[in-house]
Write a structure and sequence with these properties.
The structure holds two protein chains of two kinds.
Chain A lengths: L3 H12 L5 H21 L18
Helix pairs in contact in A: 1-2
Chain B lengths: L6 H10 L4 H19 L2 E4 L1 H16 L11 E5 L27 H8 L3 E6 L33 H8 L5 E5 L6 H7 L2 E4 L20 E5 L2 H11 L29 E4 L12 H16 L3 E4 L5 H27 L5 H7 L7 H21 L5 E5 L13 H4 L7 H5 L3 E8 L5 E8 L4 H14 L13
Parallel strand pairs in B: 2-3, 2-4, 7-8, 7-9
Antiparallel strand pairs in B: 1-3, 4-6, 5-6, 5-10, 9-11, 10-11
The chains are: A mainly alpha, B alpha/beta.
Chain lengths: ~60, ~475
């Protein structure tokens, strides 16, 4: 089980952005939604599809 | 004379001598004096340069020089797009004042060259994300249809300014729906064309591979007239396409007879948050298209939710890459909702971002394959009308907005008014075409607007 708050604190520390403690605590409830979106991306059977590095729709 | 509502009617009035461009500009300035304080449209007005431009354009028209359909048409410009007329703020204390000194980018140059008049810079959500922060010194945009509600965003001021009659048309930007959502909530039309169709130089980036500068106006016809001028490759933007732009107005009267329109109800109108009045309005819009000769076909957009997620995860990461330095040095200068959105990009790993782009590549090809059998895809633009300004939360409203999927795929989508919900607030139909088939999208939207008049309805507070 990921400790969401710990992970958040580590990532924000790495970012170098001085997020005040009260706002950091406000971010935590919303993280479940972001985590769910990221997890959903890995549920798609993309196979060996490469990333769109810059979207070039005419290719 | 009555103020003409559309570019098409305004252009006719200018050429018939029923009105001059200068008179039009003065009417819009007078209306702004009365209405702007209530709706929070303008960040900066360019009254004097607009008057001067109008005088030049009137003189040209009198002398027989006609620059085309946009000659003498007043526009509002979202304040993340630089122009020669004045500063650019991105509705933020963070953006350095010198950023706007670059002046007109290619889109502004093209519009100005075609005779458009810039009335001013209009409100956005800060940096085209977040929600308004009342503690910052910027107007809070409100919806002319109900001043307690939002006009949507992030192209808020372009949407509410057109709906309130402060200018004829304007420019927004769209990274997840920021042209189409305010168009939907304000009862006007807004187009997000194929990614790469319009150069973005001179616009503050949000999501580099999702952003589009798009036209907003009363009608699809007007959006087509604007996009005709805006579109085309430019060396300043490596993502722009060299594919021929075509002639949008040349085929716009051709109707929808024989068109095959796929409808994805499962991912949109059949979701639990949809109320019967909203569903009925959408079905009535489809019936209009069917009556006009289109064939309506049930479909499902493949990997719909994943493509929405790829938009949001991807642009969070891209926005963070642009904002990281400012977040480090100017955290307090951002509005609270904005900085709390932007910092989420720090939580997306490199692998997660790459996965979002792999999903896009995978999904966009599947969606494009649908157009082997279809001319268009129809969905509601929104399934919830304008939410209240107080307590506005993008997290809460996102499930009711069906625009981001086409920022992930890059397909052209238009939002057009299609009626009202039980609270008499505007609702909207979204029509999406194959890559670079903007002409087909405009054709169908125009056919719908020939059969209906929702796009010409005026909000009660704007009837002055």
């Amino acid at each position: 089980m990921i400790d969401t708050e710990l992970a958040l604190r580590q990532l924000i520390t790495l970012s170098g952005v001085p997020v005040p403690e009260d706002e950091l605590l406000e971010l935590i409830p919303g993280l479940d939604g972001l985590i769910a979106r990221v997890e959903n991306l890995y549920s798609v059977p993309v196979g060996d599809t490469p990333p769109t590095s810059m979207l070039r729709v005419e290719a | 004379m009555d103020l003409p509502l559309t570019i098409q009617d305004t252009a006719d009035a200018l050429r018939s001598g029923a009105i001059t461009s200068r008179e039009l500009v003065e009417i819009y300035i007078d209306r702004a004096e009365v209405l702007d304080e209530q709706i929070g449209c303008y960040i900066a007005r360019f009254d004097d340069t607009a008057r001067a431009a109008a005088d030049v354009l009137d003189a040209e028209l009198q002398a027989g020089k006609d620059r085309g359909i946009l000659h003498g048409i007043p526009l509002g410009v979202k304040d993340i797009i630089a122009t020669d007329d004045g500063p650019t703020t991105a509705q933020s204390l963070v953006l350095p004042s010198e950023w706007g000194d670059q002046g007109d980018g290619p889109v502004m140059q093209r519009l100005r060259g075609a005779g458009a008049i810039i009335m001013g810079k209009v409100t956005t959500m800060e940096f085209a994300c977040g929600t308004p922060d009342p503690d910052k010194p910027f107007p809070i945009p409100r919806n002319p249809w109900d001043l307690t509600t939002t006009p949507g965003g992030s192209s808020s001021g372009t949407g509410n300014g057109i709906a309130a009659g402060l200018f004829t048309a304007g420019l927004g930007t769209d990274t997840g729906g920021s042209v189409r959502w305010p168009a939907a909530l304000c009862g006007i039309s807004g187009m997000k064309q194929t990614f790469g169709r319009v150069p973005k130089a001179g616009c503050v980036p949000l999501g580099f591979t999702y952003d589009n500068i798009g036209p907003m106006a009363r009608s699809a016809w007007d959006c087509a007239a604007l996009l005709q001028v805006m579109a085309g490759a430019d060396e300043s933007d490596m993502t722009t396409s060299t594919i021929d732009v075509g002639d949008y107005l040349g085929t716009i009267e051709d109707g929808v007879a024989g068109m095959r329109i796929g409808v994805d109800r499962k991912n949109t109108i059949e979701q639990p948050i949809v109320t019967p009045d909203v569903a009925a309005t959408f079905e009535a819009a489809l019936a209009e298209l069917a009556d006009a000769g289109a064939e309506i076909i049930e479909i499902e957009i493949p990997y719909y939710q994943a493509l929405v997620d790829a938009d949001i995860v991807g642009f969070f990461a891209e926005a963070y890459s642009w904002h990281r330095g400012y977040l480090q040095s100017k955290w307090d200068d951002y509005g609270r909702p904005t900085r709390q959105s932007l910092i989420c990009g720090a939580l997306v790993s490199g692998g997660d971002y790459v996965q979002s782009q792999r999903v896009r590549e995978f999904g966009r090809n599947l969606v494009q394959d649908l157009f082997g059998e279809l001319d268009l895809i129809a969905t509601p633009t929104v399934v919830q009308s304008a939410p209240k300004v107080d307590g506005l939360s993008l997290t809460d409203v996102f499930p009711g907005i069906h625009t981001p999927v086409f920022n992930s795929t890059g397909h052209p989508s238009i939002a057009i008014p299609c009626g009202y919900d039980a609270s008499s607030m505007p609702l909207s139909l979204q029509l999406t075409g194959a890559y670079f088939q903007e002409a087909t999208v405009f054709r169908a939207a125009h056919a719908y607007q020939q059969a209906t008049s929702w796009h010409l309805d005026i909000a009660p507070m704007a009837m002055i």
